[in-house]
Amino acid sequence: MSAKDVVIQLIGVKKAYRVGEVITWGLRGVDLKVRRGEFIAIMGPSGSGKTTLLNMIGLLDKPTEGKILIDGVDVSRLKSKELAYIRNRKIGFVFQFFNLINRLTVLENIELPLIVRKIPRRIRIEKAKQALLLAGGDLSWLPKRPNQLSGGQQQRVAIARAIVGEPAIILADEPTGNLDRHSARSVIDTFLKLNKKGQTIIMVTHDPEVGNCAQKIYLLRDGKIISIQEPDKDKCILATVSLTKSRE
Amino acid sequence: MYLSDIVRLAVKTLLEKRTRAILTIIGIAIGPLAMIMINGVTSGYSKYIVEQIQGLGQNLIVVTPTEDYELTESDLDFFKSLNGVADAVPFYTTQGRIRVGSEEKDVYVYAVDYDFLFKAIPSLEVRKGVIPSSSDIIKCIIGYDIAYEDNDRVYELGDVVSIEIINVKPGGKVEIKHLNLIVSAILEKYGGAAFLNPDQTIFMSLESAERLLGVKDWAGILILAEDPIYVNNITETINNVYGRNVNVISFLAIAEIASSITGAVNFMTFAASLAAFAVAVAGVAATMITSVIERTREIGVMKALGFTDGQVLILIISEGIIMSLIGAAIGISLGSIGAYILSSRGLTISSGFTEIVINAPPDINIYNISLTTLMTIFIGIIGSAFPAYRAAKIPPAMALRYE
Q: What DSSP element (H or E) covers B261?
């Protein structure tokens, strides 16, 4: 596998938080390489630095030390405007609490990343529809408000918003954390389908049934990756929760 | 971002908290309302006054002697010799009373050369009859309001007007003289003149005043300049030569004074409006700060999706601008209506026994409206700038954690 295939690389990434005189370390030196088309899970107990790590990869936060390379470009010292540009083009976020904007319609939520790029409305609508279908959604949701949909449906709208700009990576922070088992299953099912089409996915979760669906599990503890595990596919939520019972 | 997207997103945000937006807009509207209303009315009046004065003749200068001085033929010759003077004539003026049916009516009497009169006040027109010759001492010209009362004819050409002239002599002795003149011409309605009231005036020749009233002292001398540009020079020269012996009044100077007074009034109302604008800025800022704090997490999401700090700033400021534009539209509309209501009541100026009511429409023009709109937009920008800047600068990771 050549270096070209590496989408994300973290080299000795450390993050310190200073509260008054006290310095606490969120990350104590993380090295990580994610190749194109990989689906990895980051697991660990709460406070282990999972979300901090994801924020670093998602360029939402800057490392105190170390380097972050996206498509071979060091982004750890870029200005906020350049970071915004890379987030928009290269990264799609999926959050635990969906973070959809309720005053906007589903369509308007999905097209937000394209508004930044100044893509004409007609094309945006087309792309939003495709993204919603890819995310396992239904076109009848488009004129609705997010809060008129169920949690599972909202998360699929959020996935559509994450993929509409065809990003290099999807970053998912506890994407099933706020969902019932059947909705969680369908979200993971959607991730696997996207991954099959070549989508790189990095997912933070504390749910083993969700983590075991990925191709690799990175175990994080006290701000360090302590092990890389092979997932047990039999414990993946797709195997444990039957699709037929799904309400969606 | 396209402008249409910015507007759409901003409008949706405002509609979400409708009541708050409406209250803020009302707060914004007060400034432009006050500014358009007060400015419109005052500058309407000032425009009217200036037009009136200019109608009287911008070339006209009036020289009246002070108590200890007497103007004579040699003064008249001196004025005529000044550079830029087209003509100069003496005049005499007094107040009198005439009978209209069973009532008495107060009138002005002006004795002046007829040719000069019509040259100096170009807007003065004869409705009917002929201008008598100066030597025809028993003839006169009467103003519209003397000839007609409530559109009923009171005096016709050829009628005799009987004028009772009350003269207060030095020492307080009152002398009453009766004067009978034949109406030779009736003037067109001149309108609510503020400084000279031809509608209530009887004009006679100076010769007639000298012979019939025994007037010896001139009330003053009227000077007609060749062009308004000479007026200030002539005024200055006379002032320099005569000092305190005479008062020199040019209508041009009065017009300038009137403009500068209303300019000062406008400035004061502008300053008062600024207070309303300052309150509006505080209102917008309060609304926007609350709104931005509520949306902290959402702003984090937008940044995660790739919105730059600048784009977040623009989105939030445009909310302020949209509220301002609506506030300006409401304020300007209500202010215009208010200005028409206010000015329809008229401005009453009383002096002596005359009362002049100025009925002038408010002066609301493109300049007024655009200045007010610009200032109101400025409120929106200033009021939302700080909240927007704060929102734009929140680190996205922190904003996303915000509950």
A: helix B251-294
Rounded to whole angstroms, what are the CA distances from B314 to A102, A175, B385? Answer: 21, 31, 9
Question: Phi then psi for A144, rounded to 5 degrees?
Answer: -80, 165
Query: Taking CB atoms and an 8 Å limit, are B307 and A80 in contact across chains?
Result: no
Contact criterion met (CB < 8 Å) for A118 and B397: no
Domain boundary among B215, B244, B270: B215
Minimal Cβ distance to A112: which of B13, B305, B397? B305
B249, part of any domain: no
Distance from CA of B4 to the nearest CA of A (A): 10
Q: What is the domain extent for residue B194?
A: 90-215
Q: Is the residue at B280 inside a domain?
A: yes
| A37-63+78-245: CATH superfamily | P-loop containing nucleotide triphosphate hydrolases (3.40.50.300)
Residue B274 lies inside a defined structural domain of this protein? yes
Q: What are B326's two structure tokens?
A: 């609506």
Chain A interface mutation, best of B4, B305, B313, B318, highest count of A Cβ atoms under 10 Å: B305
B394 φ/ψ angles, rounded to the nearest 5 degrees: -65, 130
* Pair (B368, B297) in one structural domain: yes
CB-based contact B2 A55, cutoff 8 Å: no
Per-residue pLDDT 10s for chain A (248 aa) are: 555 689 999 999 999 988 888 888 889 999 999 999 999 999 998 888 898 999 999 999 889 999 999 988 898 888 989 999 999 999 999 998 999 999 999 999 999 999 999 999 999 999 999 999 999 999 999 999 999 999 999 999 999 999 999 998 999 999 999 999 999 999 999 999 999 999 999 999 989 999 999 999 999 999 999 999 999 988 999 888 776 554 44
Best of A17, A56, A80, A95 to disrupt the B interface (most B CBs within 10 Å) is: A80
Cβ atoms A170, A200 nearer than 8 A? yes
Per the CB < 8 Å rule, is A101 touching B298?
yes
**Considering B198, B215, B232, which residue would you say is the last residue of a domain?**
B215
Do residues B288 and B211 both lie within one domain? Answer: no
- B120 and B59 Cβ atoms separated by less than 8 Å: yes
Q: For B201-240, write each residue's pLDDT tens digit.
A: 999 998 888 888 887 888 899 999 988 888 889 989 998 9
**Cβ contacts of B400 on chain A, cutoff 8 Å:** 55, 60, 95, 99
d(CA B276, CA B270): 10
The domain tally of chain B equals 2
Which residues have C-beta within 8 Å of that of residue B391, sequence separation ≥ 6? B292, B295, B296, B299, B312, B313, B316
Residues B68-110 have pLDDT tens digits of 888 889 999 999 999 999 999 999 988 888 887 778 888 889 9
